[in-house]
């Protein structure tokens, strides 16, 4: 599946898209996070974005950076059809969807 | 008899130095982060516009002939389906630090040579009993399991750092090669002079003029012939390297701090370049001060779009640390540039560094007060993010001069992560 972008930068489901897109988005997103205390591991398991639910099937990379003193956790995750880059702001405790891609040539 | 002499002259020590090279570093890390890119030709480029310079092609892209330094447009000609990504430095820094952490399990002598290269010497550590080859195999396996299943490294093992690096370059990706007293002759005989790091066209022609035409000739040549070929002591260093003796274990100290920027748009005059220069100076100044240095020299280099080059340095009689002072000198240099033509790249650096040990008062200005102001600005920028407080000249610069990773030195890398 591929998504199209409206002119004002808002993504809309079902309209889609040019294939082969890496799109910077920077929009709020709902994320379910699972913490396993036995292995001390945090795993985002699904995303609700634009009224649609996506199950995360794989985490490619988890890394962090700081802007000033604010720590951000970045999860690069894969769903069936798309790649999402999710950013967790540890000051506001908010999630931002930073980027989506379908892995096709741009 | 001659062969026996050669064998003895190569360092007979059991090799304990490992050179670890993360294959197609930036591109592989992007494929690790985004599994949908795996197995596809991708390239990380400075910019994703047609003129953007390709910094790291993936192994799939390399097979199609795409090389570092090509323009994005050239890459797209070779492969219409090439996927172009722009750099994401914090991903690469994170992998670098995780790799370093893993390597520290085997030795305390873990030396990062660049963002994607490490040297590990296991001599004298418990890992030595495993043997370097077994250590290398375990490192490869642990990288896949603990850092990322898509990441591969090529590892060279040798009695010295130089040959370990050569070994790491013999088979890519995922290679493992040993250069020691047993294997060196077969390997040397398979290499061209220019396959050696540090031997390019200039050095190769010096060697050929001295009667040395191959790596095996270079190894076989006596010290006097090597010194004669290079016209200096450098010939002796090369003799030592190729015979497996260590001469590259000297850590160089930092001599300069600098930043550069490749301009995507056309700017000609010093006035048009001034905001870019200011931002470069702000970055350089902040790094200089954070590391606790002051400078007594400023250098400016310009590459024009017609590929011509101009540069000039200036020594200063007093210590400078304030970005405004660095800018003043850098702008004066910029105004001295003789050409007014489109600039492709501009670089600023500070040199003659010394450790900041209290501020020496000037005759006409309160340098202590200036030091306090600069310290306060740095503290605010550190708390709220770089460039929260900036000179007015930088207004409208936005994200120009974005975060980058240099291919060479990574002296600040660990420091920047530890402080973050």
Q: Kindly state the mean pLDDT of chain B as a whole number?
A: 87
Coarse shape of chain A: globular
H/E topology pattern of chain B: HEHEEHHEHEEHEHEHHHHHEHEEHEHH
H/E element string of chain A?
A: EEEEEEEEEE
Task: State mean pLDDT of chain A (0 to 100 scale).
Answer: 83
Structural class of chain A: mainly beta
* Strand order within the widest beta sheet of chain B: 5-6-1-7-8
The CATH H-level superfamily of the largest domain in chain B is Reverse transcriptase/Diguanylate cyclase domain
Q: What share of residues of chain A is helical?
A: under 10%
Q: Helical stretch count of chain A?
A: 0
CATH class category label of the largest domain in chain B: Alpha Beta
Number of domains of chain A: 1
User: If strands are numbered along the chain, what order do they take across the biggest sheet of chain A?
Assistant: 3-10-9-8-7
Spans where pLDDT lies below 50 across 5 or more residues of chain A: 1-19
Folded structure, characterized:
The complex is a heterodimer of chains A (106) and B (420). Chain A has 106 residues and is mostly beta strands. Chain A has one domain (23-101). Chain A contains no helices and 10 strands. Chain A is globular, with a radius of gyration of 14 Å. Chain B has 420 residues and is an alpha+beta fold. Chain B has 3 domains: 12-190, Reverse transcriptase/Diguanylate cyclase domain (Alpha-Beta Plaits, 2-Layer Sandwich); 191-251, DNA polymerase, domain 1, CATH 1.10.150; 258-418, Dna Ligase, domain 1 (2-Layer Sandwich). Helices cover 40% and strands 19% of the residues of chain B. In chain B, the strands form 3 sheets. In chain B, strands 5-6-1-7-8 form a 5-stranded mixed β-sheet. In chain B, strands 9-12-10-11 form a 4-stranded antiparallel β-sheet, with helices on one face. Chain B has a 3-stranded mixed β-sheet with strand order 3-2-4. In chain B, helix 7 (161-168) links the parallel strand 7 (153-158) and strand 8 (176-178). Chain B is globular and about 65 Å long. The termini of chain B are far apart. The model of chain B is unreliable at 1-8 (pLDDT under 50). The chains are: A mainly beta (106), B alpha+beta (420). Chain A binds chain B through residues 20, 22, 58, 60-61, 63-70, 74, 76, 78, 82-83, 85, 101-106, and chain B through 29, 32-37, 40, 48, 80-85, 90-91, 94-95, 148, 381-385, 388, 420.
């Amino acid at each position: 599946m591929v998504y199209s972008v409206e002119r004002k930068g808002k993504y809309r489901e079902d309209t889609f898209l040019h294939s082969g897109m890496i799109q910077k988005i920077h929009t709020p997103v709902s994320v379910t996070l699972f913490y396993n205390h036995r292995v001390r591991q945090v795993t985002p398991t699904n995303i609700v974005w634009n009224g649609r639910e996506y199950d995360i099937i794989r985490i490619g990379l988890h890394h962090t950076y700081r802007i000033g003193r604010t720590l951000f956790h970045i999860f690069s995750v894969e769903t069936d059809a798309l790649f999402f880059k999710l950013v967790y702001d540890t000051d506001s405790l908010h999630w931002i969807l930073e980027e989506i891609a379908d892995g096709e040539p741009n | 008899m001659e062969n026996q002499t050669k064998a003895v002259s190569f360092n007979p020590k059991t090799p304990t130095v490992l050179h670890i090279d993360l294959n197609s570093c930036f591109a592989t890390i992007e494929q690790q982060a985004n599994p949908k890119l795996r197995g596809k030709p991708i390239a990380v480029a400075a910019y994703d516009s047609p003129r953007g310079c390709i910094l790291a092609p993936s192994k799939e892209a390399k097979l199609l002939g795409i090389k570092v330094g090509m323009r994005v447009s050239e890459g797209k000609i070779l492969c219409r389906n090439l996927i172009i990504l722009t750099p994401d430095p914090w991903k690469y820094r994170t992998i670098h630090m995780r790799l370093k952490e893993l390597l520290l399990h085997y030795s305390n002598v873990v030396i990062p040579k660049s963002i994607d290269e490490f040297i590990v010497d296991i001599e004298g550590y418990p890992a030595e009993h495993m043997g370097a080859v077994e250590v290398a195999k375990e490192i490869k396996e642990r990288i896949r399991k603990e850092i990322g299943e898509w990441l591969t490294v090529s590892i060279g093992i040798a009695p010295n750092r130089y040959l370990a690096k050569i070994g790491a370059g013999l088979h890519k990706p995922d290679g493992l090669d040993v250069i020691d007293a047993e294997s060196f002759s077969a390997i040397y005989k398979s290499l061209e002079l220019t396959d050696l790091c540090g031997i390019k066209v200039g050095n190769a022609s010096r060697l050929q003029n001295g009667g040395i035409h191959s790596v095996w000739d270079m190894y076989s040549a006596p010290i006097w012939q090597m010194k004669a070929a290079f016209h200096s002591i450098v010939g002796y260093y090369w003799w030592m390297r190729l015979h497996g003796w260590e001469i590259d274990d000297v850590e160089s100290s930092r001599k300069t701090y600098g930043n550069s920027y490749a301009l995507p748009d056309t700017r000609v005059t010093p006035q048009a370049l001034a905001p870019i220069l200011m931002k470069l100076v702000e970055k350089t100044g902040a790094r200089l001060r954070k590391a606790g240095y002051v400078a007594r020299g400023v250098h400016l280099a310009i590459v024009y779009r017609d590929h011509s080059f101009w540069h000039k340095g200036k020594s200063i009689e007093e210590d400078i640390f304030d970005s405004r002072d660095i800018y003043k000198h850098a702008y004066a240099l910029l105004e001295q540039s003789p050409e007014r033509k489109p600039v492709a790249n501009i670089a600023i650096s500070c040199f003659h560094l010394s450790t900041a040990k209290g501020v020496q008062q000037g005759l006409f200005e309160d340098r202590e007060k200036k030091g306090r102001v600069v310290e306060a600005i740095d503290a605010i920028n550190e708390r709220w993010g770089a460039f929260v407080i900036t000179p007015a000249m930088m207004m409208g610069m936005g994200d120009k001069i974005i975060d980058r990773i240099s291919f060479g030195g990574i002296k600040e890398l660990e420091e920047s992560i530890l402080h973050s």
